[in-house]
Amino acid sequence: MIGHLSSVLVAILIVAAMSYAQNPGLVKKGSFDMEGEIGSLSQQTMEIPEQSEPVTVDGILYEEEWSDAVELNLDLTLDGAPPTPSRVWLKNDNCKLYIAATLSYGHLSSEELYGDGFQSIEEAGCALNIWFDLDGDMYWDGWDSKNQTYAPDAVISVPGMLTPNKVEYALAGMRGWNKFPEAKAVYQTLRMHSPWHNSAWGDPPRVAENSNVVRKIDTERKEITIEGWIDYRDQPLLLQAGLIPRIRINAYLTLSALVDKNGDQEYTRNLIINGCWPTVGSDDSYYWYLVNPSDDRLQSALLTQIDVEDNYNVADFELLKNRSYDSYAYAKGSDLRIQFDFSDIDDRLEVIPFHVNVYGPLPQNSLRQHVESQVEVGNNGSIKFSEVRLDVPDEGFYQVEIVLDDPGLCGNQRISKQWTVLQVYENTFPCIVYPGDVNNDGLVNFADKKALQYIIDEAKRSGVPLHESDKMRFGPSFPDAGSNLEFVAQAALPWDLLGGCSADVDGNGSINEYDMIALEENWFRNHGAYIPKKDDGFNLEGFDVSNSSFPSPVHSTALLHVNLPEDSQVTLTLSDITGKQIQVLLDGFRVAGLYSPTLDMTQFPNGTYFITATMKGVESGIDFKKTMKVTVAH
């Protein structure tokens, strides 16, 4: 929709004791070092902000992805152990609530807690739970006391127990919520409180289908990372602007400590509980496992609205090939030409911003160039073009990433696409390779094996090296497996060895017997018109079907001559005048040679018949078809 749209931004305004991070403790890309210290800031207003950077749910909390989120601190509590913070990040994109957490258990790997014989500690379960008092009646229940109507509140668990790649939830009123058993019984369950206990007294959780979660364990850092999202417009939250829900967050870990006592290994299970947010009292006396939080255990949350200006839609965009080479090969300093396809463009819009990142040279993945640019829109159609100068110093392969935002109901959705390109120095002409077509005749067949073997033999005889590691080729869909063998025009750096570009079929910078194997991946494939070379040893005229020995007309039997210049798939059939097939004379693979099948017409009445021969050369891939008329007169 064009113009201004109103959509929900989850903004939680809280006046309560809480913890902020002065610097986000997040992972920088290319590093796994955590930075930042947890500070304290009380009596402040907190809101869940709209995200400015998109999140890839992969279990790694990159600083670039989460630095725009609000960060909360849930102090870890366990008798006999010092408190350690677990951290929670929240943000949204007007549709989804993005959730991340790190839960640390490193301080528990200590003989001080377990005594002599302590070996190790292993994680057995974890979750982050967020409770929503959706009707804002200051009680987590299934009843709206203000409107005197049934209104079940919700709790979500990230990740789910039964579906660990999704968010799971329960609603007040489900079996198990109102009958909380003894704590010791609950401790034995993975979810650690009755709503998740799948038994006679508790319903299993439900799956929030429109959600996604990844959980990762770093055993060296002794830290667990949770990252995910849930669409808060769907069940169970159904959040809308104007509602004032109240929330509570708790997280937990369960760990198994391996203790060796007198040579007998045994597990001691310990429950590690993260303090709730918001906390109550100096000693965190409000226990995490109590059901139905109420009053000051829930903090007010105000859902506000923001405007989203959806003034264009991105249909597609692509980096165009260099027409000089019909591939993604460019001379140093060339302009990269980009084609954009937009729809629903606002008449008032003049330019749309985008940026280009260049990484490499491959296989390195360093950012070598970043360009902020824009494409002029106007009102003369939806197809637009823009150019960006390729400005990297070294020859080689690079990945070009084009990034732009597509505004919509859920805020700006970032879209990115990548292409593998080759930069060559000025006055250097790249090779254009179709992997497997060693002799460059447009067809992958036996002649290419012969050409490859000749290059290998000649190089060995003359002492020319068959290895040039700086001439590795990176396919168009790198780093996907098999990219180097895609049968498209691939640019390559020229080899010192004559014919080396095409002979290095797998593009690894070495020419050897493995290229013979790689060649077969594209066996029989061709591009453009087939241009037979002398080494192919045949032409279309080699295929022949002759009826020269037929009597005229055929009274009983006759010989049919079939000449095959190469191994072929052959089908030879007899049909009546209506075109109905009535006999198969040859069918299947035949080696090269002359065949003379007998045509027996004694069982057929007088009339006109047709013999059709269809052949396909195994090596060449060439098709041949011929139909002959036969008259029968007994």
List the helices and strands and how they pair.
Elements: E1 3-10, H1 63-66, E2 70-77, E3 85-92, E4 96-104, H2 111-114, E5 118-133, E6 143-144, E7 149-150, E8 154-158, E9 167-171, H3 183-187, E10 206-208, E11 211-218, E12 223-231, E13 246-261, E14 264-274, E15 299-300, E16 303-310, E17 313-319, E18 329-331, E19 335-343, E20 351-359, E21 367-376, E22 383-389, E23 396-408, E24 411-424, E25 431-433, H4 446-462, E26 490-492, H5 500-503, H6 513-519, E27 544-546, E28 557-559, E29 561-564, E30 568-575, E31 581-590, E32 593-595, E33 598-600, E34 607-617, E35 623-632
Parallel strand pairs: 18-24
Antiparallel strand pairs: 1-16, 2-3, 2-14, 3-4, 4-12, 5-8, 5-13, 6-7, 8-9, 9-10, 11-12, 13-14, 13-15, 17-19, 19-22, 20-21, 20-23, 23-24, 25-26, 27-29, 28-33, 29-32, 30-31, 30-34, 34-35
What does this entry look like structurally?
By secondary structure, this protein is mainly beta. It has 4 domains: 3-307, no CATH class; 311-424, Sandwich (Immunoglobulin-like); 431-535, no CATH class; 538-632, Immunoglobulin-like, CATH 2.60.40. 6% of the residues lie in helices and 40% in strands. The strands form 9 sheets. Strands 2, 3, 4, 5, 8, 9, 10, 11, 12, 13, 14 and 15 form a 12-stranded antiparallel beta sheet that branches. A 5-stranded mixed beta sheet has the order 18-24-23-20-21, with no helix packed on it. A 4-stranded antiparallel beta sheet has the order 31-30-34-35, with no helix packed on it. Strand 8 (154-158) and strand 9 form a beta hairpin. The protein is elongated and about 105 Å long.
